[in-house]
Amino acid sequence: MEFSEEQILLKNTVSRFAKEQVAPLASEIDEQERFPSETFEKMSQLGLLGLGIPEEYGGVGGGIVESCIVGEGLARYCASTVASWGAHVDLCAANICRNGSEEQKKRLLPDLASGKKLGGMAMTEPDAGSDVFAMKTRAVEDGDFFILNGRKTFITNGPVGDIFLVYAKTDPKARGKGITAFVVEKGFQGFSKGKKFKKLGWHGSPTGDLIFEDCRVPRENVIGEINGGAKILLSGLNSERLLLAAESLGLAKECLKDATQYGTERIQFGKRIADFQMVMEKLARMATKVEAAKAMVWSQAFKMAGKGPASMSMETAAAKLFASETALQNALDATQIFGGYGYIREFPVERYLRDARIMTIGGGTSEIMCQVIFRELEKGL
Ligand SMILES: Cc1cc2nc3c(=O)[nH]c(=O)nc-3n(C[C@H](O)[C@H](O)[C@H](O)COP(=O)(O)OP(=O)(O)OC[C@H]3O[C@@H](n4cnc5c(N)ncnc54)[C@H](O)[C@@H]3O)c2cc1C
To answer: Candidates 125, 130, 131: which one to mutate for ligand 1, based on the most atoms within 8 Å of Cβ?
Structure first.
């Protein structure tokens, strides 16, 4: 669980970048509900958009530990920026890295690594969320192409992205065993963007629908094997869940920091409010949960770095469950400690609460995390 010198350097670089470049825009992009393209340009210059992509394909290397370092560091200041960054590097690029052919990696990764193209991942559909294998988007072979028909919903970067890892049914009767992964690029015939959603939080990370109407995807854009998409999807989910846990940790820490500062400055009844035992206990419990989440996230990140994302679902689910619920609870507690100021936009805790709400839902809900954990428990009987 010791960070290497390079990882410490990355942590410090990201922390400085987030404080100096990301934090000043966080409130503005939230208010204006706009994607921070200027921050993405700066992240591209720093190499952060090529994190996890090997140097031979234009990236800067690194793996899940490095992704979690950046995820936590950015999430402390702007949950929207980190959401769109995560969809690009982890949901899209990292999975192409893991499962793409040499030709596909050479063709697709350099533009993602440089930030020339923005990535995303599309599995969710209006009638297939937690039950993702119930997806209806259909892909039918037609010579050198697959013809896709269907609609994906709630897609992070949907409205602004260029390249999407899309899952569709190639054998509709087979549930998980009938899914194939495709790379669909902006400009493909029959591919269009649907509505952009207005959301409670993550205002700077655009979320939208993707529509496929006889969309022609060349066979060379099939990732992995035909009908072999479930394995790719699940490994992606495992990695996404750990990254979301790291982002939740960042958010939970920031809530604790702001609440501690406010609690030691705000005077009521002639005393600092943090000296009232009920407030003090809240802060102590917030800190304790942050420590526990930290241990879960980093132990799992180091394990996953050694073994790969496929085999770790229980510990990852536990880390995501605990860290995301900690982020949400710490955001609630922070707004409580801020009193009326916690409810207005003068202080960022109001935004933290709105941004924290998605963490127990996206990438698999808390209920689904419990299901994954229980299934693993049963296996051990
Ligand atoms: C802002 C945002 C960004 C997103 N980004 C992406 C993205 O980039 N790509 C993508 O593919 N998807 C994305 N999603 C989709 C997200 O992963 C799903 O919303 C999530 O998995 C839940 O699915 P659902 O919304 O259909 O809820 P449902 O599955 O309908 O769940 C509704 C409720 O029922 C509960 N429930 C469902 N099944 C069970 C069960 N078996 N046991 C107990 N309880 C159950 C759930 O826990 C939940 O409380 C995003 C969503 C949002 C809101």
So the answer is: 130
